[in-house]
């Protein structure tokens, strides 16, 4: 066993008790049949709180409203339409097999389990592949303008190294179009009086009564008013936590607060260290940088990645002759070349930059060169394929990629970890369900391109609305109001925290702390992790967290729109999450998917998984800030897809 | 570079508000406009002043949150570009830049540059959707959509709901926003059954929310970061007329 017991305690194993066993193709059907139903007259008496209006939360709230439940929906933006899902570009997978190219539910299932590096549950992934086909039908019925062919049928493309063409898309705005579909369905339910929408409201605490999730404490971000809201069940659809790194491709407001508050109250947090780092983002241009922009991965189809052979070479790219360039991906991975998977491409870029061969400001970039493609295909053809991306690049960097090679660098993009849920998407707190990027469920240690949109909508439209009934069939539960001692206590916690943050009145801004935390995480818990580095990170995080609570300066008052107060609360929670991520990364001494431990690699630098010791989900229990968390293992069994090591050489 | 910013400061909805000048130094041309404001805000906080409140989220031109009138133009001088995508290399050393919130009756100011755009959601609630309850959808390929229609629908569907069109319009009209949705859904076969009620109800909600009428001033499209064409408004007008005729015809026969 791996003894890191100075950092955590090993607890009882846990198991998912909801997925039926037996043939995998019928598990979902059997679970739907065994789940209890709620009688329609009773639905109207039951309230469900849904936190988040992205693909997961928007689709869930609309569907629950249609089913007859009373829904209360929350988001921190000024409109549900602006949830971060809006930014997804590439597409959404579905096993429609419209191309007759050998795709099937089983193949999508297989690819996702394998792509996740054998760290996801087979039952969940199979269900995801099954409902993927319904998502496309649903979106088309809502009028989502997917790309079409001349015959009027839906177009697809292949994405992220799969050999079939199963990705549906709407130009580079697939997330936007799918989210608008869900948003419009949600607005329809708002108009019908089935959903009460609370935009610019932030959930700051979970209310648990008699062991059940029964409500939330929210702050009205315009007036600052703090209220308690009650329901028969609570659904978190609050997205991913990539912003713990400060710089990421996520929207600025993305945060872990809703999940973290639930975690502190007993919901286990699974695989927090699984982070996806995307290889093709626009590099940092200076200290002012506030976020990173993703450039579509499709660019690697025609662009060639290189750096100078010599360290510290400051010549302009055009002045570096061919034989002094290192096309390192083509050199190291001759079979896949520039098209190796995301994690491999990212790590290779980091390695060459660590050797001092990076290009651009701070040496943190590599070239993605289209000169060959322009020579081979002609400028017009390159423009037709990538014109909008080139334009976006030029807008941000001021450089024209037709003349000078693009500079790219990896950036944090997605978090596979999240709150632990069973097959019904219920957390370890009865009545608390978690959907979308906020849960840990379907992607294992690595998510395939175009699969997050699929999962969010699968959860929200098709899975949760079926499984939540099994829980609610025992309701409606006792009526509660703000005077209930557990509600009053949760509210007092929020009020105390808000006034604490406002009263410190120190000499450092929230952003300065967030940036510093992000640098620690990127350095030690980013693309490559080591025992020593992670231990150091934990120490640094603890020190910085203490400093935060003594020196942060939050201007303004609580009873008004106060964007720094909002940020401060989020950053405070990121500090605690950051420590747990490092502990998780430290305890998992294998490399798998997005988690690369330098100690666990082959002689030629490839990731080495350790199935004997780590074929499990690590679900962590909170015991107190800075206290050792308790590890609960959920063993993973592979009955259908047998674990193999990846190789891209 | 060094710049003078004149920014609209307004403590809350009741406050009258005023322009306040700030000097910013050492602005890098590689900064985005919002990053330049971040730097200003960091300084203001440490100096004990209130930072400037503004809406933003994705910072890549797609969520529609950012919303500033820069030197009199919604989203600033660069065409087809949201505030968050605007970079400081568009400006020159020594420039004075005026920064104000969207100004429109239907978008009351909440604080500084932050306004309430809830009226847009109200317009969508009135009919900006296709009724397709989850689970009721037919097989996606049951209804082919001609590529030209799908592409045109997509172009209208690109609207990010930012409100620049309203801020640019001398009447504070949201016709471009409304027309974009009417056009998107009206071009799809799935959108036909509700086409008439959609246009009538959305236009009624538009008027009720306090947006002004469209007088074809044509200021909206040039300000729109997604280039939603003016022709969409023509399409809305035709749909509206046709639907109104049908509705009054129905009432006539009924009466
Ligand atoms: C740039 C980019 C491109 C991407 N492209 C693709 C792609 O092509 N294909 C793909 O499959 N995936 C893609 N992804 C990933 C995918 O977009 C996300 O994983 C997915 O959209 C997450 O959806 P969600 O509903 O879980 O959460 P989100 O869309 O993040 O929604 C979170 C919601 O929770 C609310 N919220 C959060 N915290 C609180 C709180 N405390 N109180 C109240 N409300 C709260 C927010 O207001 C928001 O409404 C991309 C991601 C990025 C960053
Ligand atoms: S039409 Fe253009 S300007 Fe108006 S809300 Fe939509 S994107 Fe913004
Ligand atoms: S911040 Fe999202 S469009 Fe500008």
Describe this structure in words.
Chain A: Pfam families: FAD_binding_2 (PF00890), Succ_DH_flav_C (PF02910). Chain A: Belongs to the FAD-dependent oxidoreductase 2 family. FRD/SDH subfamily. Chain A: Keywords: Cell membrane, Electron transport, FAD, Flavoprotein, Membrane, Oxidoreductase, Transport. Chain A: One of its GO terms (cellular component) is plasma membrane. Chain A: One of its GO terms (molecular function) is succinate dehydrogenase (quinone) activity. Chain B: Its cofactor is [2Fe-2S] cluster; [3Fe-4S] cluster. The complex is a heterodimer of chains A (649) and B (255). In chain A, strands 1-21-20-12-18 form a five-stranded mixed beta sheet. A five-stranded parallel beta sheet of chain A has the order 7-3-2-11-19. Among the domains of chain A are: 136 residues, Alpha-Beta Complex (Flavocytochrome C3, Chain A, domain 1), CATH 3.90.700; 151 residues, Fumarate reductase/succinate dehydrogenase flavoprotein-like, C-terminal domain (Methane Monooxygenase Hydroxylase, Chain G, domain 1), CATH 1.20.58.100. Chain A is globular and about 75 Å long. The model of chain A has no long low-confidence stretch (mean pLDDT 95). Chain A has 17 helices and 21 strands. Chain A has 649 residues and is α+β, with helices and mostly antiparallel strands. With 255 residues, chain B is of the alpha+beta class. Chain B has two domains: 109 residues, Ubiquitin-like (UB roll) (Roll); 122 residues, Alpha-helical ferredoxin (Fumarate Reductase Iron-sulfur Protein, Chain B, domain 2), CATH 1.10.1060.10. Helix content of chain B is 36%, strand content 11%. Chain B contains eight helices and seven strands, in the order ββαβββββααααααα. Chain B has a five-stranded mixed beta sheet with strand order 2-1-5-3-4. A two-stranded antiparallel ribbon of chain B has the order 6-7. In chain B, a hairpin with an 8-residue loop joins strand 1 and strand 2. The radius of gyration of chain B is 21 Å and the shape is elongated. In chain B, 50% of the residues are buried. The model of chain B has no long low-confidence stretch (mean pLDDT 96). Iron/sulfur cluster (SF4) binds next to helix 4 and helix 5 of chain B.
């Amino acid at each position: 066993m791996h003894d890191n017991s100075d950092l955590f305690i090993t607890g009882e194993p846990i198991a998912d008790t909801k997925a039926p066993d037996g043939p995998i193709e019928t598990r979902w059907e059997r679970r739907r049949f065994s789940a209890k139903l709620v009688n329609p007259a009773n639905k109207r008496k039951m309230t469900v709180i849904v936190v988040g209006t992205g693909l997961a939360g928007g689709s869930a709230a609309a569907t629950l409203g249609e089913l007859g439940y009373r829904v209360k929906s929350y988001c921190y933006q000024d409109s549900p339409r602006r949830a971060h899902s809006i930014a997804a570009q590439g597409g959404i997978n579905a096993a429609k097999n419209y191309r007759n190219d050998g795709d099937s539910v089983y193949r999508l299932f297989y690819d996702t389990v394998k792509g996740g590096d054998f760290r996801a549950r087979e039952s969940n992934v199979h269900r995801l592949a099954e409902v993927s086909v319904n998502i496309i039908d649903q979106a088309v019925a809502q009028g989502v303008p997917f790309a079409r062919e001349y015959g009027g049928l839906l177009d697809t493309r292949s994405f992220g190294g799969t050999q079939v063409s199963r990705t549906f898309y709407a130009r580079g705005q697939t997330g936007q179009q799918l989210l608008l579909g869900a948003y419009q369905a949600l607005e329809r339910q708002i108009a019908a009086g089935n959903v009460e929408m609370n935009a610019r409201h932030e959930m700051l605490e979970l209310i648990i009564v008699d062991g059940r999730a029964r409500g939330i404490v929210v702050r009205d971000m315009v007036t600052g008013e703090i209220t308690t809201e009650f329901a028969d069940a609570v659904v978190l659809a609050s997205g991913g936590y990539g912003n713990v790194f400060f710089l990421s491709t996520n929207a600025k407001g993305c945060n872990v607060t809703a999940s973290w508050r639930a975690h502190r109250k007993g919901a286990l947090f699974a695989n927090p260290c699984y982070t996806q780092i995307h290889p093709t983002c626009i590099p940092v241009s200076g200290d002012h940088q506030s976020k990173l922009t993703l450039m579509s991965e499709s660019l690697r189809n025609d662009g060639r990645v290189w750096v100078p052979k010599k360290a510290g070479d400051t010549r302009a790219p055009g002045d570096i002759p061919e034989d002094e360039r290192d096309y390192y991906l083509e050199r190291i991975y001759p079979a896949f070349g520039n098209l190796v998977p995301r994690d491999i491409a990212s790590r290779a870029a980091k390695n060459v930059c660590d050797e001092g061969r990076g290009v651009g400001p701070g040496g943190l970039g590599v070239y993605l060169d289209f000169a060959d493609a322009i020579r081979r295909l002609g400028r017009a053809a390159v423009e037709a394929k990538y014109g909008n991306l080139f334009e976006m690049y030029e807008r941000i960097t001021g450089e024209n990629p037709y003349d000078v090679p693009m500079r790219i660098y990896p950036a944090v993009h997605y978090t596979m970890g999240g709150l632990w849920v069973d097959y019904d998407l219920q957390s370890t707190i009865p009545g608390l369900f978690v959907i979308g990027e906020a849960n840990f469920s379907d992607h294992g240690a690595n998510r395939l391109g175009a699969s997050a949109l699929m999962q969010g909508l699968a959860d929200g439209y098709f899975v949760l609305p079926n499984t939540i009934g099994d829980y609610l069939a025992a309701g409606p539960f006792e009526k509660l109001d703000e005077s209930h001692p557990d509600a009053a206590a949760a509210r007092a916690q929020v009020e105390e925290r808000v006034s604490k943050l406002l009263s410190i009145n120190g000499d450092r801004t929230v952003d300065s702390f967030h940036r510093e935390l992000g640098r620690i995480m990127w350095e030690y818990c980013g693309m490559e992790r080591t025992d020593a580095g992670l231990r150091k990170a934990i120490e640094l995080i603890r020190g910085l967290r203490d400093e935060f609570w003594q020196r942060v300066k939050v201007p303004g008052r609580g009873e008004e729109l106060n964007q720094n107060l909002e940020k401060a609360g989020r950053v405070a929670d990121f500090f605690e999450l950051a420590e747990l991520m490092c502990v998780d990364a430290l305890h998992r001494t294998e490399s798998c998917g997005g988690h690369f431990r330098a100690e666990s690699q082959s002689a030629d630098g490839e990731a080495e998984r350790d199935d004997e010791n780590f074929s499990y989900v690590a679900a962590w229990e909170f015991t107190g800030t800075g206290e050792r968390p308790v590890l609960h293992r959920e063993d993973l069994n592979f009955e259908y897809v047998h674990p193999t090591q990846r190789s891209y050489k | 570079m060094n710049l003078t910013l004149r920014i609209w400061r307004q403590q809350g909805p009741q406050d009258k508000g005023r322009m306040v000048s700030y000097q910013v130094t050492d602005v890098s041309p590689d900064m985005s406009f919002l990053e330049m404001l971040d730097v200003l805000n960091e300084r203001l906080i440490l100096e004990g002043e209130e930072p400037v409140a503004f809406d933003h989220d994705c910072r890549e031109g797609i969520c529609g949150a950012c919303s500033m009138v820069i030197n009199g133009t919604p989203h600033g001088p660069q065409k087809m570009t949201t505030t968050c995508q605007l970079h400081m290399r568009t400006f020159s050393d020594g420039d004075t830049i005026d920064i104000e919130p969207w100004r429109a009756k239907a978008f009351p100011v909440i604080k500084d540059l932050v306004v309430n755009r809830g009226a847009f959601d109200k317009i969508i609630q009135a009919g900006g959707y296709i009724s397709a309850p989850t689970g009721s959808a037919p097989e996606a390929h049951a209804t082919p959509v001609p590529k030209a229609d799908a592409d045109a629908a997509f172009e209208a569907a690109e609207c990010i709901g930012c409100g620049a069109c309203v801020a640019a319009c001398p009447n504070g009209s949201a016709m471009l926003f409304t027309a974009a949705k009417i056009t998107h859904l009206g071009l799809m076969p799935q959108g036909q059954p509700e086409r008439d009620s959609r246009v009538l109800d959305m236009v009624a909600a538009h008027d009720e929310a306090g947006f002004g009428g469209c007088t074809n001033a044509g200021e909206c499209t040039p300000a729109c970061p997604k280039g939603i064409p003016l022709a969409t408004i023509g399409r809305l007008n035709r749909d509206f007329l046709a639907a109104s005729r049908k509705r009054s015809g129905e009432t006539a026969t009924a009466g």
